[in-house]
Amino acid sequence: MFDGQKFLVYNKTNMKTKVMKASIRALVVFGKIIRRGEIAAFPTETVYGLGGDATNSFAVEKIFKAKGRPSDNPLIVHLGSKFRIKKYVETISPLEREIIKKFMPGPISLVLKKNELISSLVTAGGNTVAIRIPECKLARRLINFSRRPICAPSANTSKRPSPTVAAHVLEDLNGKIPLIVDGGQTEVGIESTVVKVQDGKLYILRPGKISKEDLEKKLNAEVIEKAGGVVVESPGVKYAHYMPKCRMVLAGENDFEKVKNFYNSTASSGKRVVIFCKNSDLEKFKGLNCVGLGEDSADASHNLFKALRDYENNDLIIALKIPNGTMAAGLYNRMSKAARGEEI
Questions:
Q1: Which candidate, 261, 269, 251, 49, places its Cα nearest to that of 149?
Q2: What is the pLDDT of residue 220?
Q3: If residue 266 lies in a helix (H) or strand (E), which one and from where to where?
Q4: Which of the four pLDDT bands, split at 50, 70 and 90, describes residue 232?
Q5: Domains of the chain: which residue ranges?
Q6: pLDDT of 297
Q7: Are the CB atoms for 106 and 131 separated by under 8 Å?
Q8: Distance from C-alpha of 202 to C-alpha of 67, rounded to nearest angstrom
Q9: Are 58 and 221 in contact (CB under 8 A)?
């Protein structure tokens, strides 16, 4: 049972945050922390998550408090095995079973009708919950060691770029959580695709690595991209997210002259500017402060959040769109939110 006295101790300021490299010892410590109703950060294949017991409302409250996250922004529940999903949901339709079979474990979250075991704080008061089985083996081992369903948003301060290395988590949450498990840099770099089945159709609530084309190829179903409604069923669709400390604007993939003109006019006033683009376009900005994110949307997704943190000491980031590759929709979603939709 939850100990109210521990909750009071937890909420004291200047907690010592320990960073542990992935190991058996880290697995054991992580599991004990979660079972005590506390929270800890851990790596997945997408980004680092801030995890707590999804059945314990006190633990869920700590996640919202540590992040400064609005309580009406739901959390995704992570499980260590697809066979545990039925324990926490009311029903699973044939199409939902196909999604679980063909895409899990993987960077996808499926919205299902929750049962009473999942705290209503996880779902922002709604009756559905997004369930995910991480592809990352370390993440699944950590979840299994905890013996709890783990609700876990990205392990950063709300609105900041999501963390893809343990140092990002420490930068935002040092003194607020007891443990960060360091598993190195995450592979994918942006959060999972969130989907929901409704009336026999499959809706994408948030784009990610798994694209509309990927879903259509493997499933005999109509796939529709859908914006968030009144009841928010997916994180990442309602509030500003992923923002660097400096201003950021987007530009078209071939707007080279427009970008150079905007760069020079801004730099002429003494401001520091950096350009994000494809590696193959670096030569077009020779002599300017420019960073290559990779050669396609998958590369850029992997590198985006780290680059936002590494270069936010500038006054302006100009990011060219990178529409080639399978992760174009997810990448553009994150870049647009980081720039608050501002384009030149």
A1: 49
A2: 85
A3: helix 256-267
A4: low
A5: 4-225, 247-338
A6: 97
A7: no
A8: 31
A9: no
How far apart CA 162 and CA 303 sit, in angstroms, is 11
pLDDT band at 233 (very low <50, low <70, confident <90, very high): low
Residue where the block lists tokens 């992935």: 22
Of the two residues 79 and 230, the one the predictor is more confident about is 79
pLDDT class of 255 with cuts at 50, 70, 90: very high
**pLDDT score of 239:** 57
Residue-level pLDDT at 226: 78
Which of 38, 41, 23, 31 has the alpha carbon at shortest distance from 147?
A: 31
Q: How far apart are CA 204 and CA 196, in angstroms?
A: 7
The count of C-alpha atoms lying within 13 angstroms of the C-alpha of 166, restricted to the half-sphere facing its C-beta, is 17
* Structure token pair of residue 53: 């017991």
CB 78 within 8 A of CB 143: yes
Q: In whole angstroms, what is the distance from residue 264 CA to residue 273 CA? A: 9
Domain 4-225: give its CATH code: 3.90.870.10
The structural architecture, per CATH, of the domain 247-338 is 3-Layer(aba) Sandwich (3.40)
Sign of CA dihedral 7, 163, 193, 134: negative
State the Cα–Cα distance between residues 164 and 156, nearest whole angstrom. 10
Report the length, in residues, of the chain. Answer: 344
pLDDT one-digit tens code per residue, 168-216: 999 999 999 999 999 999 999 999 999 999 999 999 999 999 999 999 9
Residue with tokens 């599991």: 31
Residue 22, both tokens = 């992935």
Query: Does the pLDDT of residue 320 top 50, yes or no?
Result: yes
- Cis peptide bond N-terminal to 105, omega within 30: yes
What six digits make up the tokens of 229? 């409604």
In the block, residue with structure tokens 């200047």? 14
